[in-house]
Each structure stands twice: as C-alpha cells, then as structure tokens.
Design brief:
Strand 2 and strand 3 form a beta hairpin. The chain has about 325 residues and is an alpha/beta fold. It is globular and about 60 Å long. The protein contains twelve helices and 14 strands. Helices cover about 40% and strands about 20% of the residues. It has two domains: about 210 residues, D-Maltodextrin-Binding Protein, domain 2 (3-Layer(aba) Sandwich); about 100 residues, 3-Layer(aba) Sandwich (D-Maltodextrin-Binding Protein, domain 2). Helix 7 packs across helix 11 and helix 10 crosses helix 11.
Length: about 325
C-alpha cells in the first residue's frame, strides 16, 4: 500500500461518500490511518487493540466504518515517535507527555495536538539496593539510565537531579544520565554498569524482580501516556479522529472493566509481536502501579513544561492551551 502525506488512499470507485453525525456513509476511497505506539504495558490500549486484530476483531476499525483500516508502527520511545509525526509517517501516536510538549514547542505550536489521555502512573526511579541512594545529591558521579534522550522519564530524571543542586548536561555533569533502550537497561543494571534507571513498566518491575532493584521514587499519578494527532491530520480528518478517540475511550472502559483479560492480551501481544515474554506475576505487579484513563489534565501538563524548562529542554513555549484538542 502506498503512503501519501497524511493518509494512504486507493480509489475504489466513483461513489461519493461522507461522514454524517450518527450515520456512516461508505467513503469512495479506502483510508489507512497510521498509528504509533511502544511495546510497553503503559500503552495498553494499543497493545490490546493489536491483540484483538490478530484474533479477528478490529476494535478501532469497527468504530471508524467501512473502507477504513489501521497500520500500527512501534517505536522505542517518544522522540522517535515525534520525528515520525514531523515526517508525516504517522497520523496518530501513543506517546509520553514530554516528547509531545517538546514537539509542540519545536513547531511553534503548529504540528502536535493531544486528543486524549491513555495512562497515568507506571514510571519510577529504580536504584541498586546497596548503594544508599536517597536524594539527588547522592547521585553525584553516578550513572542513571533512561529510555531515550528527551523522553518523559529522561526529562523527569534530569529535572529531579537538577532540583537537588546537581549540574546535568547532555554529555555528563555531576551525574551521568545515559539514554539507553529499555532491554539494554536491564542487562546494564544487572552488571552494575548503571547505578539507577528511570523508566516505565514493565521494566520497573523487571528491574525489581530480575535484577534486585529498589524503587526509590515512584510517579504514581503522573501522566505516562497520551494520544497525539498531527495537527494537519486533525484539521483535515477531524471526524475520523473524533471516531478514533471515541473508540479509544470505549476500549479504555473495556480494559478498566476486564483487567485480567487485558493483562493476558498484553502478555500475549508482547510475546507474539515483539518476542518479549513476561510472566503473569510481573504484569500484575506492573498493573498495580498504573491507571488506565482517557482523560487529560491541562494543569498536569504545566508541570511537565516546568520540568522540561528546568532540565534545559525548553526555552520558549507557545500558548499551552492550543496543545489539547479533544474532538
């Protein structure tokens, strides 16, 4: 299938179609919406939706109507997903709040819109159990792993260390923040090449259960994942985005009502699609730290902006009210 700017089109006939409120009229062309996500339990809606698709139930497509399909794209962390937004390679993506905010600022408020919440909690700072690390000053000379430079946990780590009086730079400083892919964090932590890791589930629980890590700081209520749309895509295909967001909310409600089933689906999808095998105990432990949601808090986003400014990622910020565009 050939991908064009915001959507892949294949002409099916001369039928004229449109979306009317409450009524689906078959469109004249096939549309493919490209959606990004990470292979993490904190992207539960995407993982459950992909599981459903592999078993013949297209949750989002059923809500979008005939001749609309979805292509999924997986990324390691938020900055990569935001680059895909800028390159117009994806139309919507599940992503952490900081990369979304950074992309919004970088584009002068023109390219990115948050259309829904997705997950709160599930991120934490995990430390070696015998190093007596308790406050930012204790991390002087230490190495802290984060998923990717500029992602939500990377910004949180840098802001927290800076708030404790440490000088943190991209190349080093008083402590070394080391952007490292999640699977590599685990092995480096085991071999003590990392003194701490600030990451998300299921890696937080894996660091605890498989490497003896100790959770020092847990972000129980912080926004972990949001659903973002390209501003141009939202402007051009607003009704499709509205229908996608509605299906996202319904799926969020389903996951909330069926937590055990959702956990099993995510486990199965991680194994089948990404060769990541996690135990039922591990995902249950991770699940206890998370809160699935479709709501988004504007005030919470201001906290992320403050952290990004403190960490040196943001100097100027466009009017934040335009970032949230719930259809």
């Amino acid at each position: 299938m050939v991908a064009f700017r915001s959507i892949a089109w294949r002409v099916l006939g001369v039928v004229t179609g449109l979306w009317a409120f409450g009524t689906i009229v078959v469109p004249a062309q096939e549309l493919t919406i490209r959606v990004g996500h990470f292979p993490n339990v904190t992207h539960a809606q995407a993982m459950v939706a992909r599981y459903f698709e592999r078993h013949g139930r297209n949750w989002f497509v059923n809500g979008l109507g005939p001749n609309v399909s979805i292509e999924w794209y997986a990324y390691n962390a938020g900055p990569s997903a935001m680059e895909a937004i800028f390159a117009e390679s994806v139309d919507l993506t599940y992503v952490g709040p900081n990369p979304a905010i950074n992309a919004y600022a970088r584009s002068g408020g023109r390219e990115v819109r948050i259309v829904a919440g997705a997950m709160n909690g599930g991120s934490a700072l995990v430390v070696q159990p015998d190093e007596h690390l308790a406050k930012p000053a204790d991390f002087r000379g230490k190495r802290i792993g984060t998923p990717q430079f500029g992602n939500t946990q990377d910004v949180a780590a840098r802001a927290w260390l800076t708030s404790g009086g440490l000088r943190i730079t991209q190349a080093g400083g008083d402590a070394h923040v080391v952007p490292t892919a999640n699977p590599e964090q685990l092995s480096l932590f085991k071999t003590r090449q990392l003194d701490a890791v600030w990451t998300v589930e299921p890696w937080v629980s894996r660091l605890e259960m498989e490497a003896g890590g100790k959770v020092l700081l847990e972000e129980k209520h912080a926004i972990t994942t949001v659903l973002v749309a390209r501003a141009e895509f939202l402007s051009t295909h607003g009704d499709l985005v509205r229908r996608f967001v509605n299906a996202h909310r319904e799926l969020t409600d389903w996951i909330t009502q069926h937590p055990k089933e959702a956990q099993n689906m995510i486990r199965d999808e991680l194994k089948a699609g990404f060769r990541v095998n996690i135990s039922p105990d591990l995902i249950a432990r991770a699940w206890s730290r998370m809160s699935v949601t479709s709501d988004i808090s504007a005030s919470a986003l201001h906290t992320f902006v403050a952290n990004a400014q403190q960490a040196g990622f943001l100097r100027t910020m466009p009017e934040l009210s335009n970032l949230i565009a719930v259809p």
